Amino acid sequence: MSHGNMNLTLKVWKQKNKDTKGRFETYDAKGISPDMSFLEMFDVVNEQLISSGKEPIAFDHDCREGICGMCSMYINGRPHGPKDGITTCQLHMRSFKNGDTIVVEPWRSAAFPVIKDLAVDRSSFDRIMSAGGFVSVNTGNAKDANNILIPKDDADTAFDAAACIGCGACVAACKNSSAMLFVSAKVSQLSLLPQGKIEKQDRVLNMVKQMDEEGFGNCTNTGACEAECPKSISLENIARMNREYLGASFTQNKA
Amino acid sequence: MASSSKLNAKIPEGILENKWTKYRSTVHLVNPANKRSLEIIVVGSGLAGSSAAASLAEMGYKVKVFCFQDSPRRAHSIAAQGGVNAAKNYQNDGDSVYRLFYDTIKGGDYRAREANVHRLAEVSGNIIDQCVAQGVPFAREYGGTLSNRSFGGTQVQRTFYAAGQTGQQLLLGAYSALQRQVGMGAVTLMARHEMMDVVTIDGKARGIIARDLVTGKLQRHFGHAVLLCTGGYGNVFYLSTNAMGCNVTAAWKAHKKGAFFGNPCYTQIHPTCIPVSGDHQSKLTLMSESLRNDGRIWVPKQKDDKRKAKDIPEEERDYYLERRYPAFGNLVPRDVASRAAKERCDAGYGVGASKMAVYLDFEANMMRYGQIEANKKNLHNPTKETIRALGKDVVKEKYGNLFDMYKQITDEDPYEMPMRIYPAVHYTMGGLWVDYNLMTTVPGLYALGEANFSDHGANRLGASALMQGLADGYFVIPYTIGEYLSEEIRTKAIPTDNEAFVKAEAEVQERINKLFSIKGTKSVDYFHKALGRIMWEKCGMARNAKGLTEAITEIQQLKKDFWSNVRVPGEQHEFNTELEKAHRVADFIELGELMCKDALNRNESCGGHFREEYQTAEGEALRDDDNFAYVAAWEYKGESNFELHKEELKFENIKLAQRNYA
């Protein structure tokens, strides 16, 4: 079935599971329409592979509207591909030219083992959240929502940090595989709001400790994470987290 | 009409306003020591699942959470855009619990249970309080108070929001609460696991069979109770605003194990989605209902008008919602707005290349906002360009992420030309039948959130899905589950070598073997797309007896074709997304048949269920309250065999009336 008139060559990372070695394989993507999303192009390729008796390429995806954070392709050396501020599922084939060769890899990080082909295990992010990415308030304890007034600017800045979709592009982009942008976004969101201030010292210490235990690298202020983040999470969050960490280390003596 | 003896909704006695308060104060409790030995399985980690799991674990129960995604944070609640309703009356515009209750019953076209909806309205305010306490960054005014906006089907501003990412922020709040419990060891998290069947022993739900999606191994899990928080089944249409993985499998397996399916034909077609661009399309993207606050919907007055939108003068535009429904205008409920768009396109007034779209235009409001900003800034005699630039900034702050999404998909700039939109499948009001406790017809088996049928009748109002998911999880199930579990405190955990578990696992294994053994020639997606076409054409925005009858036959043929010709590549014991899809599509096919049968049975139009044979002279839905004021609860009796049971809907507080938004 033909959809359009673009023909492309894909070099895709194939790996059976985390215990086996992977390799690049070459695929033809024929009859691609510029209006397709990058993942719809993969659908077409997989449909062709299945109908010719071959195994399709495994990749993670779900919402296909840039919010769930599930899709995770490293395209031509950039997480989520060549455009800024979008996820792979929001990338459209009009960003490529007929005849292009496109290299597609999974996120590469020791803390994100490959599950199969382009799908990786990001459960380390969940464990960092469990270490402190919350406000300790049980259901039923809350007072009226307008009891505590919050300056609009604080709420807006907290929201900007909270927009993180936990995709892991920051880690994939970083030469050190650092998760600082992800962790600092949650630390910032909660420490900017009065509800989160009470636990802010424990939070930052515990989340950073877990981050280190998961095998993520350190931050050397390169800024690739911010540049590649599909939600444009600001590097300022890392600065804020460092300040909080330092403050907490001195006053709590736990670090 | 009397309700079927097999259905006991367990609605508490007493006057409406006191039912929940009284019930909550008298429902049986489980003491803290006993809670520690009671195990609860929660399937699904969206708003309903995460909030329920976190709340139950906080109370002391042992909880296991299953989700098919790689993290609970990715459940599709994350994609909800516009907002969450709550009767706070912060805007001093006349809102109240009663008004939210009334709007929801009316919006649902009088096909929901009064007692459930009133409870929903009562706890709505607590939801906002809880989320704020968790650090959810809702939009605020300069004075520091929470901000509100309007949604369809209401005349008050009761929708709380966080830009166009309200679902994301609410889910991340619930996910935080859940991960806190995971860290404390109160919840065991099973990500990348899919529920394959419910295990029942002596008629009660006692656990599930799950498949580890990474290793492919089948697992048995015991629970004193099982909560299905698995969302809706909109993907039966293949194209919908749902995520690719959204499926009906958990609910359908429960149905086959004895849980009745309520009102399966009630599906919501959302009026403002980005139109289909080609046959490669894998999903549709919603443009939030909140845009209807500031966007005006129109088509040209002239058929097949080739001019650009900008070049069509004001007097040659048909703002058909404002024309037909002056009281609510662009903010009529979704079913009404969708049908009106279809009517204009079918009549030949559609726009864009496919002619299956209408305009959603922000120009007038951009200018209005720009003028306000100019006044605020004390600008005298600003140019039109200045006003527009100021207005554009306001619109950008309110809806920037939606405008960006639109541009990425269509390659058109909605700040410069109106959006083209068309209705698309979005939500399913139908779902597993539940009683007032949210328990299905299988004791110990519950359904929460979109997975149940309970609160939205035949049409859900905007910003009410988030409200219901969180109401069920945070504020309803923690109380109502006690009614059942207080009787289970003597039940020891049942070892999973029990024959019921062994048999259920063997059945799942047999089905997997069968799927691999077919070795056909057609992909799973081929069948999914074929099913979607049948459903959209014959059980979509408009239905009639002839089409539905044909659809039932076509679906039965498709089912035969599937089980003879599907090709599932790869192996069981590996990460195999085609096998996952095959299971889901097989269940969608069976559900599709039931949806058509339900739609065929309901010889009236109500809400999202529009039977062409039953409409008013003005083309509005024509209900038949004498014969159809009931919940259709279907019992599975074997292949293609479903028995109808009726739960009579009693309206004791609201007078049944023809919905009027004009």
Q: Approximately what portion of the residues of chain A adopt beta-strand conformation?
A: 5-15%
The largest contact between protein chains, plus residue counts on each side, is: A-B, 80 and 80 residues
In spatial order, strands of the major sheet of chain A run 2-1-5-3-4
Looking at CATH, the homologous superfamily of the domain at 270-425 in chain B is Succinate dehydrogenase/fumarate reductase flavoprotein, catalytic domain
**How many whole angstroms does the radius of gyration of chain B measure?**
24 Å
CATH architecture of the domain at 270-425 in chain B: Alpha-Beta Complex
Structural class of chain A: alpha+beta
Mean pLDDT of chain B: 96
What is the count of helical runs of chain A?
9
Based on the structure given, which CATH architecture of the largest domain in chain A is correct? Answer: Orthogonal Bundle
Going by CATH, the homologous superfamily of the largest domain in chain A would be Alpha-helical ferredoxin
The neighbouring-strand order within the major sheet of chain B is 5-2-1-9-17
Q: Which class of secondary structure composition applies to the elements of chain B? A: alpha+beta
Average pLDDT of chain A, rounded to a whole number, is 96
Beta-strand content bin of chain B: 5-15%
Q: End-to-end distance of chain A, in Å?
A: 60 Å
End-to-end separation of chain B: 32 Å
Main β-sheet description of chain A = 5 strands, mixed
Helix content of chain A: 25-40%
Rg of chain A is: 21 Å
